């Protein structure tokens, strides 16, 4: 169905959205839901676009102001709510990162709170600390992005991981995906499907293994984000974008860093290896 819809548009490149409409949204009791295939004209950024060599600026927004009922679901309700936030951002701001307050971890005094950074309005977030530890939120706190899941699967969880010296992640493959929801009248799927990513060729490993990296699935704190040497965001339509400024303050030296450049090159190779034409 997707291939047919794409072919009918005559677009050379497009963004395709699959929208599932539940029974109650289709006119009431007794009427079945359906799947809507939305094809919109879209041209991806060229690989030499300034966005990748200069980086982007982001701002912050407390998640409490948006009241997401289910962060792990890409619902029409969420897409509608975030439009209001996007409409208020500065024209030079590329993305808005969502923050929330929580009690401090570790041995800090009970009752103290800190701010942690979850994800972008339409992107997942990677924070690179000075010790080359990558922090990214997971579970039901965020929307499990396709690009972020593929990166984690390929770089840290595949047999040809880019960081073989790092301790193995205790999380299963596709660490960003939350546990399957309990069955409901509108959903009888017992589990989420695997992406079945083909492991990168072993010949790539030596090229992308420096510096060794480790991965922790948890949101970075705002302090960690401001002190990070690199910050990156990604989405299905924009595989990886360097963040070089957060609310007017530089990230690291204010330029895309070594890890971004390495990961970006890896993404381009992986995209070439895995891509399939719809028609």
From TrEMBL:
One of its GO terms (molecular function) is catalytic activity. Residues 167-184 have a biased composition (Pro residues). It comes from the Eukaryota. Residues 167-190 are annotated as: Disordered. This is Uncharacterized protein. It comes from Paramoeba aestuarina. The lineage of its organism: Eukaryota, Amoebozoa, Discosea, Flabellinia, Dactylopodida.
């Amino acid at each position: 169905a997707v291939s047919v819809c794409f072919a009918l548009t005559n677009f050379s490149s497009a963004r395709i959205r699959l929208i599932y409409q539940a029974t109650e949204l289709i006119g009431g009791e007794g009427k079945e839901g359906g799947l809507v295939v939305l094809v919109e004209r879209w041209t991806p950024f060229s690989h030499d676009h300034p966005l990748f060599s200069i980086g982007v600026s982001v701002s912050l927004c407390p998640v409490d102001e948006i009241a997401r009922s289910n962060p792990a679901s890409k619902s029409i309700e969420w897409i509608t709510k975030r439009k209001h936030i996007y409409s208020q951002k500065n024209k030079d701001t590329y993305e808005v990162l969502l923050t929330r307050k929580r009690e401090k971890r570790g041995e800090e005094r009970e009752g103290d709170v800190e701010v942690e950074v979850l994800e972008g309005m339409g992107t997942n977030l990677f924070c690179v600390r000075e010790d080359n530890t990558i922090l990214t939120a997971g579970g039901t706190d965020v929307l499990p992005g396709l690009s972020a899941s593929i990166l984690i699967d390929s770089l840290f969880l595949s047999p040809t991981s880019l960081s073989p010296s790092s301790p193995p992640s205790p999380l299963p493959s596709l660490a960003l995906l939350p546990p399957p929801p309990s069955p409901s009248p509108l959903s009888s799927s017992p589990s989420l499907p695997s992406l079945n990513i083909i492991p990168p060729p072993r010949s790539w490993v030596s090229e992308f293994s420096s510096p060794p990296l480790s991965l922790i699935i948890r949101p970075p704190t705002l302090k960690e984000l401001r002190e990070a040497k690199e910050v990156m965001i990604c989405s299905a339509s924009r595989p990886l974008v360097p963040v070089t400024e957060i609310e007017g303050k530089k990230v690291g030296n204010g330029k895309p860093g070594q890890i971004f450049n390495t990961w970006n090159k890896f993404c381009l190779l992986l995209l070439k290896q895995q891509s399939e034409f719809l028609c």
